[in-house]
Here is the input.
Amino acid sequence: MVPVLVLVTAGVFFLIHLTPGDPIDAMMAESVDASVKAALSRQLGLDQPIHVQYLRWMGRVLRGDLGRSIRNNQPVIEDVGRRIRPSLELALLAILIALVVALPARDRLGGAPEHARSTARARRSRSSGSACRTSCIALLLIFLFGVTLRWLPVSGYTDPLEDPVNGLRSLTLPAITLGLALAAVITRTLRSSLLEALVGGLRAHRPGQGAVRSGVILGGTRSRTASSRSSPCSGSSSAD
Here is the structure.
């Protein structure tokens, strides 16, 4: 795990240095004197070799110091902290919506004949969710609920802890978009796990093991295996 993290961070660090542009120019105006830019570059350690810059950066990261933003000169850890809560709120709401959509279909995934219509609907919904891109779902939801019906806002964010009603309204559209895509994945995983469990049950209850009549739902048909418990032969033989 640690070597992977080192390789990934080193690769990203080196690729950023290959991109065009200078962070000093982004922090200061182009009209600033070159000596001032050189002094700032020395202060930030940007005049050092790239491997020295990476080692210094990694040492600060291990201490919890992510540096300062070149745009607002604020600590990066504070910017991340301000933005992590909305992301977590959106992720939790999307997972809840995905579970609400996917779990009721678990009884329809096996394909029992008495649930043929609901099984077909569940499969079509799963296929549609897997085929549609998240961006396509988002545009459809924005057009329907944001533009046509005007029920939900299409942009902006309100903290649910400060204003629960408007906060949930601001998170509903993106959460539904992510939740529907995730529901298709959960549904497909549930179906595969269910079929594997049922096939394993069929193999475990094969004839000759004293199993009673058992049924397995597979592929839209119900397969039944019947076996009777072995009983000792009646009657006795007489000996001379």
